[in-house]
Amino acid sequence: MVAIVDSGSTKSDWVILDDFKNVFLKTETIGFNPNFISKELIVPEIEKNTSLTSVKNSITRIFFYGSGCGVRQNCITIEEEVGRV
Known about the structure:
Helix content: 25-40%
Radius of gyration: 12 Å
CATH superfamily: ATPase, nucleotide binding domain
CATH architecture: 2-Layer Sandwich
Oligomer: single chain
Distance between the termini: 15 Å
Structural class: alpha+beta
CATH class: Alpha Beta
Order of helices and strands: EEEHHEH
Number of strands: 4
Strand content: 25-35%
Largest sheet: 4 strands, mixed
Number of domains: 1
Strand order of the largest sheet: 3-2-1-4
Mean pLDDT: 96
């Protein structure tokens, strides 16, 4: 499965595609703009979403498009924290 995440400062839209590129799941979490959220909050906020936690072991790739990710260090922060889930 593939996760596509469109994240702003207030909310993140998540789409999970199955192996045939069909939409398997659509859900939302809070926004993960690394300029405004502490990195320590990212994992707990994602884990609050039971839809995501139920498929997390099946996700093989994540495409994250987010506010605040124009700075390399912010990209690294998001990659590390989202990858931990």
